[in-house]
Design goal:
Oligomer: heterodimer
Largest sheet of chain B: 10 strands, mixed
CATH class of one domain in chain A: Alpha Beta
CATH topology of the largest domain in chain B: Rossmann fold
Structural class of chain A: mainly alpha
Number of strands of chain B: 12
Number of helices of chain A: 24
Helix content of chain A: 40-55%
Shape of chain B: globular
Helix content of chain B: 25-40%
Number of helices of chain B: 9
CATH architecture of one domain in chain A: 2-Layer Sandwich
């Protein structure tokens, strides 16, 4: 079998996607030059939902505008040439035996997905990422498959150590190569791992009924691209199936089961052209001012879809207040509703997070916040000098800030729980939190207090306290707190996330031993 | 000399002899602390090592050597939270020159270890050196060992430190919120695993316990610049004082005792130094320490 250009392109972009996925991690550089976010920035579904929700232009999404223009000119080529999920489906589908297509999915099912998604964006609920194919793929990889790979490899390596001890070192170079270039640095378990994988598996399972089932009948990105693609000036000649052959029905992964090429479904895979026994088929560029009809789906679907978007958007706002107190967003997110308008829930910030502080929200942020990132400080803290999440966020929901600005961004405030914190609860020294607090002037400080220990012996204990004005809520205090299970200090969400004041470091400084500082010898 | 005087002298001498002999022996046994000063950190590190007998005294050809700096924090070199990379590099070079088969450099960091290795400048300073390993900690390598100490009965220590032929402790001298200073003794935390926060409830005793079990062959304290407040991680250049010194000794307590004076403190002000001295881990009285300035 020959490799027609679309196939080569598909494999090329799949490879790029996987390489970028692996590159979305700290590798000794403060800046990540290329990450999977390029795919989202070129994603028209992300573009439209963000524009509708933000009601403002977003420069980060310029590539998606180019993609829209290209689709208007060329048709739905993204699905047949670029989409990594589509490529994976094409790779596995020959091995899956087909039964009859599901009739429920025919007709307007795809519009019932796309239109509510877009219309709810208009009401500030940007859910497009939930069903965006690239986001589904990325989340499946990030939350389940990649950790699985990491854990399996690492556990194998550890078992080897238990088996042969330091002699393992002779194999280390090979393993290190693998570890440094492919494996995740740290193994993380994510909530929603199974759900994310199930969504992905479901898409593959749909291949049991027909080829590219998801792409034709459900995918909101595909539907959007198909709608744009019907204006393209690339036309197949002949349009329909030839009376004497009909092989197109068999070759075409999408549209020829209807006997005619629907531009909104044709993914320009060119299989009909390469496979035609008579070499009759060409794709010609010609101007045609009669795009496929109907231009808009039935009024019933259009209005019904828009109404359901509204119905979806308003009740989804419910949030339980006790969950909100611990709803800590990534650094730089100052306003929750602004954040929700832009976040496409792609999972990249969680993938890149240096200390695995970010996790997908399952219920903490209500329905509207499903899959959005939140910090769980007990599992990982926000590293003071790291700006990676802002760098990889495709839409700027997490702003890309220089490190000096990011350090001052407030994600929450730390609060002591005197029932757990050792100096209060047990009257013994600890202050691990003060030690780890990264704020140069220390947002956690301690004072020496004369106290009678529980054994009746008077002693001096260092009691810690939080200096609210300079605490940025990074959460390292909660992360390192040595109290088992529940920490003695916890970070809580705050409404006022104005950055903490810039620290004056040039002023003369008297150090802890009463000597004046820098430069004296 | 008449008889009376002779008997007197002999009597006095006989009575004094044990004391005198002890004093004389002590003068010989006084731990040596070498202090090199200068702004060429590679050179002063070498001078300090040479003043305590040269690296060949400690490292034999074919040895596996662990050089354990403090690189626990994601801070740049000027902020004095981590051992100076030039000091670490000089120590590693001396080990190699003495014939070490392999030199391993690592630390169990507090911040993200990748960032610590990079931003401390140490990983980069050792890049490309043959037979030098600057590896991330691998959690499976921590081994539970019976310390039988006063506070810690057992703890997990890093097997690469345990199995090395020579262990060289290369801390930086800095302020610490709980123990006032962190110097040579406390740097042993970098080979400890487990819930290290736990030991803070009795930090001095715990650190003394580990040091009693696990002893460095040589301690080289980086005091090229010291962190005088907001330790152990600092972050404010105003808290840093440039002191241009490197201190070396086989007596970890003596090295710490001398380093303490750079902060204007006395060794007795640091409970950990006192605890270690009481355990017989080294000398903390400055007048019983022989300081050689080079």
């Amino acid at each position: 079998m020959k490799n027609p250009p679309p196939r080569i392109s598909q494999l090329f972009f799949l490879a790029i996607f996987l390489v970028l996925f692996v590159m979305t991690e700290y590798r000794g550089q403060d800046q990540i030059n290329a990450a999977v976010n390029s795919f989202f920035r070129a994603d028209p579904l992300v573009l439209f939902s963000c524009l509708l929700a933000e009601k403002a232009w977003n420069w980060l999404l310029l590539p998606a505008v180019l993609m829209v223009l290209a689709t208007l000119l060329l048709g739905r080529f993204f699905c047949g040439w670029i989409c990594p999920l589509g490529t994976l489906l094409d790779l596995v589908t020959p091995a899956i035996r087909k039964s009859a297509p599901i009739s429920l999915l025919k007709g307007n099912a795809r519009y019932w997905l796309l239109i509510p998604l877009l219309s709810s964006s208009l009401f500030n609920l940007n859910l497009s990422g939930l069903l965006d194919p690239i986001a589904i793929l990325l989340r499946g990889l990030t939350f389940l498959l990649y950790p699985l790979l990491g854990l399996t490899a690492r556990e194998g390596w550890v078992n080897l150590y238990q088996l042969i001890g330091e002699r393992r070192d002779s194999l280390a170079p090979a393993y290190n190569l693998f570890r440094d270039n492919l494996l995740p640095f740290r193994d993380t378990l994510y909530p929603l791992a199974f759900f994310s994988a199930l969504l992905l598996i479901a898409i593959f399972a749909l291949e049991r009924y027909e080829t590219r089932n998801w792409c034709r009948n459900l995918c909101p990105l595909g539907t959007l691209l198909g709608w744009l693609g019907r204006f393209s000036f690339f036309n197949r000649v002949p349009k329909g199936v030839c009376g004497d052959c009909g092989k197109c029905r068999e070759l075409c992964p999408t549209t020829f089961d209807q006997g005619i090429l629907n531009k909104s479904e044709c993914i320009l895979c060119l299989d009909c052209q390469t496979g035609c026994p008579h070499n009759r088929i060409t794709f010609d560029a010609r101007l045609e001012f009669l795009p496929e009809r109907p231009l808009v789906p039935e009024r019933r679907v259009l209005l019904g879809g828009m109404a359901s978007g509204l119905l979806l958007a308003i009740p989804a706002r419910f949030r339980s207040p006790e969950k909100l107190s611990r709803l800590i967003r990534p650094p730089g997110v100052r306003d929750e509703s602004d954040f929700l308008k832009k976040c496409v829930r792609c999972g990249e910030c969680m993938k890149v997070c240096l200390k695995n502080a970010l996790y997908p929200s399952a219920w903490q942020a209500g329905v509207e916040g499903f899959y959005t990132p939140l910090v769980i400080p007990r599992l990982g803290y926000c590293e003071y000098n790291c700006t990676l999440c802002g760098q990889v966020c495709p839409t700027g929901a997490i702003p890309n800030l220089p490190v000096s600005a990011k350090r001052r961004e407030v994600i929450g405030k730390a609060v002591f729980d005197k029932g757990h914190c050792l100096p209060f609860a047990k009257r013994i020294d600890c202050i691990v939190c003060e030690e780890h607090c990264p704020i140069p002037d220390k947002a956690i400080r301690s004072r020496e207090v004369k106290i009678i220990g529980f054994d009746g012996v008077p002693k001096i204990v260092k009691e810690p306290y939080v200096v609210d004005e300079i605490c940025n809520g990074c959460g390292i205090c909660e992360f390192v707190c040595p109290v088992e299970t529940k920490a003695g200090i916890e970070v809580f969400s705050v409404r006022n996330r104005n950055p903490v004041a810039e620290q004056v470091s040039s002023s003369p400084h008297v150090d802890a031993y009463g000597q004046s500082g820098y430069g004296s010898k | 000399m008449n008889r009376r005087n002779f008997v007197k002298s002999v009597g006095t001498l006989t009575l004094m002899a044990p004391l005198l002999i002890r004093e004389a022996l002590a003068a010989v046994d006084q731990p040596l602390v070498a202090v090199a000063e200068g702004s060429d950190y590679t050179a002063i590190t070498r001078r300090a090592i040479n003043a305590v007998g040269g690296m060949k005294k400690y490292v034999k050809p074919g040895d596996v050597v662990v050089v354990k700096p403090n690189m626990g924090w994601d801070r740049s070199v000027d902020l004095a939270a981590n051992t100076h990379p030039l000091v670490v590099r000089a120590v590693v070079e001396e080990c190699l020159a003495a014939g070490a088969r392999k030199v391993k450099v690592f630390d169990n960091t507090c911040n993200d270890s990748r960032r610590c290795y990079v931003n401390s400048g140490i990983e980069n300073a050792l890049k490309g050196m043959k037979n030098v390993e600057c590896k991330q900690i691998e959690p499976e390598r921590f081994k539970k060992v019976p310390l039988n100490g006063q506070f810690l009965k057992e703890w997990e220590l890093y097997d690469e430190a345990l199995s090395a032929n020579v262990y060289i402790n290369v801390p930086i001298a800095k302020h610490h919120g709980l123990s006032r200073l962190t110097l040579g003794l406390k740097n042993v935390m970098g080979i400890m695993g487990g819930n290290r926060g736990y030991i803070h409830r009795n930090l001095d005793s715990a650190i003394a316990d580990v040091n009693a079990y696990f002893k460095a062959h040589l301690t080289i304290i980086d005091a090229t610049r010291i962190l005088t407040a907001h330790g152990p991680q600092g972050g404010n250049i105003a808290d840093v004082r440039v002191t241009n010194k490197v201190i070396a000794s086989t007596d970890i307590v003596a090295a710490d005792a001398f380093a303490t004076t750079l902060f204007g403190l006395k060794p007795a002000d640091i409970p950990l130094t006192v605890a270690a001295h009481k355990r017989g881990l080294g000398e903390m009285n400055l007048d019983r320490i022989r300081v050689v300035r080079v």
